[in-house]
Amino acid sequence: MQRGLNVHSEIGRLRTVMLHRPGGELLNLSPDTLAPLLFDDIPFLQEAQREHDRFAWMLADEGVEVLYLDRLVAEALDAHEGARAEFCERWLSESGVDGRCARAAVREKLDSIADTTALVDKCIEGVRADELDLAPSSLLSLADLMLTHGNAVSPLVVDPIPNAYFTRDTFSVIGRGVSMNRMLCATRRRESIFGDFVFRYHPAYAGVPRWHESGSAYHIEGGDILVLGPRVLGVGISERTQPAAIDSLSHRLLWGEPPSGVERVFAFSIPHKRSFMHLDTVFTQVDVDTFTVHPAILGTLRVFELARGACAGEVRIRQLDGTLDAILAQALGVGGVRLIKCGGGDEIASAREQWNDGSNTLCVRPGRIFVYQRNSVTNDILSRAGLELLEVPSAELSRGRGGPHCMSMAFWRDEL
């Protein structure tokens, strides 16, 4: 395993990446819970796993070391005495289990799981009432009693975390450090626990610089963070990321210790709607001077540059004029940037393939990118533009509204 973190671009040769294989959490989705758990449909688990396994195999075939979230967390918990108990207590506290008996029953269930990886998987999967002893005679508080409806026990005592396979969001590797992100929606905030324990206790990653903390008052998500270069960061002002969070992150990156190396932060204001959920759903970098882009954002973006001011601790902000390609060329320090439109000029194809993450690509090295197989119009355009495509089967994975970039968190990339 490569020790430490090193991500100074979105396109340097990918050496180490973290994934999460979808599991039993998808089986705990139901039509009634889709909206609060941020899903539009229920993926077929076995096919989603086959597709994800194919993605992981394709990464490994490109020479990428594939790490898995649950195993990293388990290794962190096993490496430090008392970490497992600390993890369980924090997970319980953030899971909304308020009844005394229910909480004790859930803790007993967790303590009965000997294998640490299986414990982490159970925390992602959620806890069903039929796994616990919640007989009416044992319910000693109003919070316990409210778990029941008449004589029927509510099916779930602890909700699943079905968005966990989008490992891009809850923390972000920037340079040699990490931003621990505060998620907008309550259903995803427990995901931050996993990353927190990895970067506190894992032998390979403990002690890396932390550029932001999930306990912040303002929300920011990793899909809005693009590492454009060693000294340049792009962040989306989106449905999921607040301007105040970008202020806080930028101040730490520009002025904090140890130095991050970042000298400029570009904030891209995108429409606040589900189909444009994060910055990486509307554009991603695919080569030194090339990006995929959703054409609906062209002409609508406002872009701001944050840099060091004249006085210590001061951050200077200015709004940038010009087209997106000109601004990106300036940020990257290249003569020009090529924007390849998702769906081309076809309005219906563009909207359809944007919904299925046609602009959400993962670059394994300059010009060689992972894409969802289902976006045939966009993929044909990318191929004809000279890019090498690695097409991931995506009939079920795409139902979660996230593509190859969303499903991966780079830990190590070679320098350009």
Automatic annotation (TrEMBL):
Residues at the active site: 406 (amidino-cysteine intermediate)
Class of the enzyme per the UniProt entry, highest EC level: hydrolase
Classification via InterPro entries: Arg_deiminase (IPR003876)
Keyword line: Arginine metabolism, Cytoplasm, Hydrolase
GO CC terms: cytoplasm
Biological-process GO terms, alphabetical: L-arginine deiminase pathway
EC number from the UniProt entry: 3.5.3.6
Gene3D superfamilies documented for this protein: Arginine deiminase, L-arginine/glycine Amidinotransferase, Chain A
Protein name as annotated: Arginine deiminase
Lineage of the species this protein comes from: Bacteria, Bacillati, Actinomycetota, Coriobacteriia, Coriobacteriales
